[in-house]
Automatic annotation (TrEMBL):
GO terms for molecular function: ATP binding; kinase activity; metal ion binding; protein serine/threonine phosphatase activity. It catalyses: O-phospho-L-seryl-[protein] + H2O = L-seryl-[protein] + phosphate. It comes from Streptomyces wuyuanensis. SUPFAM superfamilies: GAF domain-like, PP2C-like, PYP-like sensor domain (PAS domain). InterPro entries: Bact_Sigma-Reg, GAF, GAF-like_dom_sf, PAS, PAS-like_dom_sf, PAS_4, PAS_fold, PPM-type-like_dom_sf. It comes from the Bacteria. The keyword Hydrolase applies. Its EC number is 3.1.3.16. It is an enzyme of class 3 (hydrolase). Residues 34-89, 140-210 form the PAS domain. One of its GO terms (biological process) is regulation of DNA-templated transcription. It holds the Pfam family GAF. Keywords: ATP-binding, Hydrolase, Kinase, Magnesium, Manganese, Metal-binding, Nucleotide-binding, Phosphoprotein, Protein phosphatase, Transferase. This is protein-serine/threonine phosphatase.
């Protein structure tokens, strides 16, 4: 029978024939075959036996195995085993001590069996290896199997065709299929919820290049938990045998869902902090009530909502502190509306400037009544009448697809001013607790700006109608300062001018010292001065820095055409022992320290108020007990016939005289510098740090 006739047709098996380089498992075990004849002589001796026991073939062949290899104490046992194998043909396996050529006894693992030749003769074949080597291989194999089976990391081996060879229980748990159902299948068949095409493309690259892919994150939803997005870290590496032959690719899959969600939450938190920081820069850039409301609406869209509306209680806009009682209606004045995209839902919002009354059952009314956020994560049809202003607005909101709603109160200094109204249409995610926190933070920051703006607006309106007294009274009990001041009108007829000074104690113990000069004279200049004084007092009460105060005064002065003014604003902090000064085209103050020569403070001059378009800067100085600041208007030192630098030198010379009380110093300066007819009024303010 020919070699191919046993396999008719196309059933001839495909056999891979070729040399096997050393390094395989049999080589690691070092199996040593030895054949004994029926009388116990060594008939065949292998090279492996020589390496294992030390005897060459010439030394071993023809010798009786017992005296050559077995200790005397074990000869009886060996004879029994030899007889049993040769007579019954039963195989025997076990461990037996064998003597090495060097005299040492070694434990060998044996597999013994009977052989028969063509003449009916019997032989004994012994396959032996070092017990130590075999046990090490067994331990390594058992350890490998246990590591794979018990590992919490999903492990899989795929052949070069990317079909599964084996998976461990951890990976089977990910797929939901028994481990045996993975064998022979591709990734797309066992893990359809992953991006199988990309994974298989990555596996091919690993097979082709040998470069591992480490910690590639893959997202998906398992069949057992479709509501939760899960994340796995996938690593791939090529498998090769000791001879370098490519066996396939191994994959490890680690569930990193918690890490993924934590990273997403951290990124979300960073984004929200960035949004809050951005809001801090964008909201409150002016003291205009309407602009501040628009800034709040704009900053929330589209980051937080698709449509945002800012509505303030009409009583708050008018300056009346009235709370909305439970069960009563609320009257709102709409200030701003912003939308992420064109939509009919904008028509459902109150137009800016419109005053609307909302009934007690409306959610926005409940928001300002309780001072707490109102959230409807999933808006149903029955919720719309409590959200919209009327039936037509409900229809518009439903048509636009509103699905989530939130109203957050605007609270400043303990007073509920209104509400920030937020709706989602295209954004598919409902409002959650994190959104409530973010909206509340934005509303809180904006409410203070809105309150400042409406308060400033009220004060500014009052300042436009009223002229303050030209000679303010010294406030009692200034913290850390004693002051003296003078005002002298210009000319013999005591014509009222535009010079002024102010001493403004603030709620935190600080004191604002102000001197200013509106160009010109007469009632108009005095009226302009009164407006600036009122605005300055209002701005100072808001806790703004000197440069910010001047920036707002510059804007106000621009509305008082054709007037411009110079001004110096100093903010003294007794807790830090420092003064912060900013100037708008005004002459520098004099600083006198005990035991030192008086100096003119080096300040950036700035431009006069009303010029506009130029930033103001503040400079900080330390003040110690006994230090004296002299603030003045140009009427104190300017004359027609002398250079201003010379006059300032005279001022410093007068201040360098013997120490005196502040009232006496005021008189001395006026007497010395204001001799003869004068054409300009003067304001003088001296402040000394108390011991």
């Amino acid at each position: 029978m020919g070699g191919t006739e046993a396999f008719p047709g196309d059933l001839v098996p495909s056999v891979e024939v070729g040399p096997a380089p050393p390094g395989g498992l049999l080589d690691v075990l070092g199996l040593a075959p030895v054949v004994l004849d029926a009388e116990g002589r060594i008939a065949l001796w292998s090279q492996q036996a020589e390496e294992l026991l030390g005897y060459t073939a010439e030394e071993a062949l023809g010798q009786y195995a017992l005296p050559l290899l077995v200790e005397e104490d074990h000869i009886g046992t060996v004879l029994e085993l030899f007889s049993s194998v040769m007579e019954s043909g039963e195989n025997w396996a076990g461990v037996f001590p064998v003597r090495h050529k060097d005299g040492a006894v070694r434990q060998l693992e044996f597999r013994n069996m009977r052989l028969q030749d063509q003449h009916g003769g019997f032989y004994a074949l012994g396959l032996s290896t070092s017990q130590e080597t075999l046990r090490q291989v067994e331990r390594d194999l058992a350890l490998s199997v246990r590591l794979v089976d018990q590992s919490p990391i999903g492990l899989a081996v795929l052949d070069p065709d990317l079909r599964c060879v084996t998976v461990n229980p951890a990976l089977a748990g990910v797929s939901g299929l028994p481990a045996e159902q993975h064998v022979g299948r591709r990734v797309s068949e066992t893990l359809p919820f992953l991006d199988a095409a990309r994974l298989e493309a990555a596996m091919r690259r690993v097979l082709e290049t040998g470069t591992p892919m480490v910690d590639r994150q893959v997202l998906g939803r398992t069949p057992s938990d479709l509501d939760t997005e899960r994340a796995w870290s996938v690593s791939l590496y090529r498998l090769e045998d000791p001879r370098g032959r490519i066996l396939g690719v191994a994959a490890s899959v680690v569930d990193v869902t918690d890490r993924h969600h934590a990273a997403k939450e951290a990124e979300r938190a960073r984004h929200r902090l960035s949004l809050v920081a951005d809001a801090s820069m964008r909201i409150g850039t002016t003291l205009d009530l309407w602009e501040t409301a628009r800034e709040l609406a704009d900053v929330t869209v589209p980051e937080l909502a698709d449509i945002a509306a800012v509505d303030v209680l009409d009583s708050a806009v008018e300056g009346r502190r009235e709370s909305v009682q439970e069960g009563s209606t609320a009257v709102f004045r709409a200030l701003a509306v912003a939308a992420a995209y064109p939509t009919v839902a904008v028509q459902a919002a109150d137009p800016p400037g419109e005053i609307t009354r909302y009934e007690a059952d409306r959610l926005v009314t409940q928001c300002v009544q309780t001072g707490e956020p109102i959230v409807v994560p999933h808006v149903a049809n029955e919720d719309l009448p409590r959200i919209a202003r009327d039936a037509s607005a409900s229809v518009l909101l439903a048509a636009a697809g509103v699905h989530s709603y939130m109203a957050v109160p605007l609270i400043a200094r303990g007073e509920v001013l209104g509400a920030l109204d937020l709706k989602r249409f295209r954004n598919p995610v409902p409002f959650d607790s994190d959104d409530v926190l973010l909206a509340s933070e934005l509303a809180s920051r904006a409410a203070v700006c809105i309150d400042n703006a409406r308060w400033y607006q009220q004060q500014r309106n009052a300042a436009l109608a009223l002229q303050r007294s030209l000679l303010p009274r010294h406030p009692p009990n200034l913290v850390g300062l004693e002051v003296a001041s003078r005002y002298q009108p210009a000319g013999a007829v005591s014509e009222v001018g535009g010079d002024w000074f102010d001493i403004l104690p603030l709620s935190d113990g600080k004191t604002a010292l102000v001197v200013g000069d509106v160009m010109g004279s007469g009632i108009n200049a005095a009226t302009a001065m009164g407006r600036l004084r009122t605005a300055t007092q209002t701005l100072a009460s808001l806790g703004l820095g000197p440069d910010e105060v001047l920036r707002h005064l510059d804007s106000i002065t621009g509305e008082l055409e054709p007037y411009i003014a110079t001004c110096l604003y100093a903010l003294y902090d007794p807790h830090k022992g420092r003064v912060c000064i900013s100037t708008a085209g005004h002459l520098p103050p004099v600083l006198l320290r005990p035991g030192e020569a008086p100096v003119l403070l080096d300040l950036p001059t700035g431009v006069p108020l009303g010029v506009g378009g130029v930033e103001f800067r503040s400079v900080d100085f330390a003040l110690s007990p006994g230090d004296t600041l002299v603030l003045y208007t140009d009427g104190l030192v300017e004359t027609r016939d002398q250079d201003i630098d010379a006059r300032l030198h005279v001022l410093l010379t007068l201040m360098a005289g013997p120490a005196a009380g502040l009232e006496e110093t005021c008189d001395r300066l006026l007497d010395s510098l204001r001799r003869g007819p004068v054409e300009d009024d003067v304001a003088l303010l001296i402040a000394r740090v108390r011991e």
